[in-house]
Design brief:
Blueprint: E1 2-10, H1 16-32, E2 36-43, E3 55-63, H2 66-72, H3 76-84, E4 89-98
Antiparallel strand pairs: 1-3, 1-4, 2-3
Amino acid sequence: MFEHLVIFKFNDQTTLAKQQEFVDQLLALKEKIPGILELTAGINQTEETDRIQGYTIGLRVTFEDQQALRAYGPHPAHQAFVASLNGWVENVIVSDYPLPLK
């Protein structure tokens, strides 16, 4: 299995309602893209406000394997989501790593 973590930083014009739209779009990817075992996304509600540095949405996707992660990037549903971010996102942090077998 492979874990994919993404944290989004939006520009100042991005309302909470717009951020929720992005979360809803992310959650819908689970049903559209093969190889996703689990997907969670949400608006950051940490109490450690001195550490968020403007990053407000988190995404965690667990894939069957690294090949499923590789297929996710170019998938049309993912590309449509990426296109919807145009003009809204200031920065994104991504981390991918294998999960240990149990």
